[in-house]
Write a structure and sequence with these properties.
Blueprint: H1 5-18, E1 23-30, E2 34-41, H2 48-53, H3 73-83, E3 87-93, E4 97-105, H4 117-125, E5 132-139, E6 142-147, H5 148-155, H6 161-179
Parallel strand pairs: 1-5
Antiparallel strand pairs: 1-2, 2-4, 3-4, 5-6
């Protein structure tokens, strides 16, 4: 099982990258009552048969994982949502893209801890591939939005240690501002 909400978000957003999306929008909204996550992409999408099997733990898309015959990401997410008074929806169309939305009751005793959102965002921003990722995090009335291309431009690229360090510091500062610790 995932250790934190940040792990869940990283796992589900990574699916969009692996689906060949060139544009991914990721939102995390915390309003004190619930935690909502939305991920939409223009990747390869799923046909109806694949959508029906997406929550089967003994199924993974052929060719997605060379050495694995199971796909536990979405089944585990569904279980966490159910255990934490939440819900999830998956919409996808082959050749168009996928939209995944899930939410958790923020006060549920079984809710995993939030985890390190800055590190999760940095990990996704640094994932190999040619894609644009736009990440928005809102907490109450405050929030920020950052895109992969803007972040890369601002720090002189995400390929160098210096660029990665600066990008990580920026994301950490945005999270600290949301938490009121900046």
């Amino acid at each position: 099982m995932h250790a934190t909400i940040a792990d869940v978000i990283a796992d589900t957003a990574q699916n969009s990258i692996e689906a060949g999306a060139s544009k991914i929008e990721l939102s995390l909204v915390e309003d004190g009552k619930e935690i909502s996550v939305g991920i939409s992409d223009n990747g390869k999408g799923m046909d109806e048969a694949t959508k029906r099997r997406a929550f089967d733990p003994f199924y993974t898309e052929p060719g997605k994982h060379d050495k694995r015959k199971v796909g536990l990401g979405l089944p585990i997410l569904k279980q966490i949502c159910e255990e934490c008074g939440g819900s999830l929806s998956l919409d996808s169309e082959k050749g168009v893209g996928t939209s995944l939305k899930y939410r958790f009751d923020a006060k549920n005793i079984d809710l995993p801890p939030m985890g390190d959102i800055a590190k999760m965002a940095m990990s996704l921003m640094n994932y190999p591939g040619n894609f644009e990722l736009v990440f928005t995090h809102k907490k109450g009335q405050d929030g920020y939005t950052v895109s992969r291309s803007e972040l890369s431009d601002a720090v002189g690229g995400l390929e160098s240690v210096e660029g990665l360090s600066l990008a990580g510091e920026f994301l950490e500062s945005q999270e600290a501002a949301l938490d009121g610790t900046a």
